[in-house]
Each structure stands twice: as structure tokens, then as C-alpha cells.
């Protein structure tokens, strides 16, 4: 990567206040990108964007069509166009399948699945004349399922099907659409760990040791995740679409 890898790329990053989105907001300006960060958490989002040298932070609730449309239109106006959407905002709460409430299910689907649809629809008019890249966040859970997180797994499965559909629909506009399936250590993963009993955590760690051939645990945002995303956000990735790109130390492969 060099200071020119993302030169001239105008990029919206959702989930910019934490975890992987935050990592990209911090890294991309140094590669020449113009970045607008978005998140529900305006306090952390503003602080990260300011420290990183991003062009702007804009608050958004990705479940709310009006909020999404206003934020995307404002970001595009500020940047003078758009080349890439990286849609990392998401939630992954746990609940047993047999007694999760309808409100819980609706909320998890709204943020992860409906939020992806709304963000993608909102950027489409800004990408359709010159083309560009959409990078949505799926999960190994969307492929394999995830005991204890069935609503989340269902939402990420929906993201994968949506992705493949719009990759085909929007290819004629030279819009590429790929899904990231990460296994990266972030505050979301810390929260998942904090919800486990000591016994379950020990089992979980032992399972990851077997399931992740490269190192036996989730990867690091800066070393393992950002370099791949920098390439995927660059012009060099223009001939890739409809793919699930696992950045997971070999976890999906090893099942
Ligand atoms: N960490 C992993 O290993 C892992 C694995 C598989 C998939 N993912 C997916 O990767 C993406 C990034 O995850 P992360 O680990 O960086 O999580 P994170 O919790 O660190 O960050 C997620 C961000 O999304 C924001 N957000 C939540 N709801 C929102 C809403 N309604 N509107 C706008 N912003 C909202 C949060 O405020 C937070 O800043 C998520 O979509 C997640 O499901 C993560």
C-alpha cells in the first residue's frame, strides 16, 4: 500500500465509530482517500473521524430510510461524488432461538439486513453513471449458522443473498458488490465474549484454536483486515463482484 493506493477515491464508511469501520476510517486518509464516516454513535464517531483526518462524520441510523438518504446525499455533496460504500454498521446480540422476542428479531433484522438494503439503495443513484464498489458485511454465521445468534445469522444470510442479486442487477452500471466475512477482534467480539459463562468461553476458545488455522484466534484490525480492505476499495478490484471474501484466518475454509 502506498499514499496513492486510494488517491481520488471518495468513500463512505458506516460503523465508523468502532471496530472494523473505525479501523478503516483511521487508515484510509493516509492512502489518499476522501472519507466520510457514519455511525449511530455520534460522540465516538466524531472523535474518530476528527483524529483520522476524515472529511466529515455524519450521524445515521441505518434502519431509518430518511436518515440514510439524508446522510448519503450530504456525504456525496461534501465529496463531490462517490466511488465506494463500505457498510460495516451492524449488531450481533445473543438470544436463544426458542424464546427470543419478536421485537428482538425485528431489531436484529432491521439493523443488519434492512440497513444493508437501505444503504445500498441510497448509494445506487450516485454510483450508477460512473460505477463503483459496494462492500457489505456478511459473516460466517450467514453461511454456517450460529447457535445463540440465530437472528443475526438469518440477517447475514439475507445480506449474502441480497449481495449476489444486486451484484448481477447492477453489474451493467459497473457497480461491483462483494461481501466481507470477517473474523476480527473488535468491541463486537468483546461483547460476545462477555455474554459467555467462563465454561462456554473456554469451549469457545478451544473451538477457535481448532477452527482458525492461521493463529487460532480472531485477527487484528490493522494488520489482518485493513490491508485487504484497502485493495478491495481500490480501482484494482474493479473486476471482482458477487463474491464472499473471508478475512478470517481460514475459519470458513476449515469447516
Ligand atoms: N468482529 C467480527 O469478527 C465479525 C464477524 C462477522 C461479521 N462481522 C460484521 O462486521 C461488521 C463490523 O463489526 P465490528 O466487529 O467492527 O462491530 P462493532 O460493534 O465494533 O462496530 C459496529 C458499529 O456499528 C454501529 N451501529 C450499530 N447499529 C447501527 C445503526 N442502526 N446505525 C448506524 N450504525 C450502527 C455501532 O455504533 C458500531 O460503531 C458488522 O456488520 C458485523 O456484523 C464482524
What brief labels describe this structure?
15% strand, 255 residues, Rossmann fold, alpha/beta, binds nicotinamide-adenine-dinucleotide, seven-stranded parallel beta sheet
Rg, alpha carbons: 17 Å
Name the CATH superfamily classification. Answer: NAD(P)-binding Rossmann-like Domain
CATH class, anyone? Answer: Alpha Beta
Q: What is the CATH architecture term? A: 3-Layer(aba) Sandwich
Averaged pLDDT, please? Answer: 97
Q: How many helices in DSSP terms?
A: 9
Number of strands: 7
What is the H-and-E element order? EHEHEHEHEHHEHHHE
The number of distinct structural domains comes to: 1
Main β-sheet, in a few words?
7 strands, parallel
* Class by SSE composition: alpha/beta
The gross shape turns out to be: globular
- How far do the termini sit from each other? 32 Å
* CATH topology grouping: Rossmann fold
Ions, cofactors and other bound molecules? nicotinamide-adenine-dinucleotide
How does this model look, in words?
- This protein is an alpha/beta fold and 255 residues long.
- The chain has one domain (10-185, 220-247): Rossmann fold (3-Layer(aba) Sandwich).
- The protein contains 9 helices and 7 strands, in the order βαβαβαβαβααβαααβ.
- It has a 7-stranded parallel sheet, with helices on both faces.
- α4 (102-127) links the parallel β4 (84-87) and β5 (132-137).
- α1 runs parallel beside α2 (42-52) and α4 packs parallel to α6 (150-169).
- The chain is globular.
- The two termini are 32 Å apart.
- Nicotinamide-adenine-dinucleotide is lined by residues 14-15, 17-21, 39-41, 60-63, 88-92, 111, 115, 137, 139, 182-184, 186-189, 218.
- Nicotinamide-adenine-dinucleotide binds next to α1, α4 and α7.
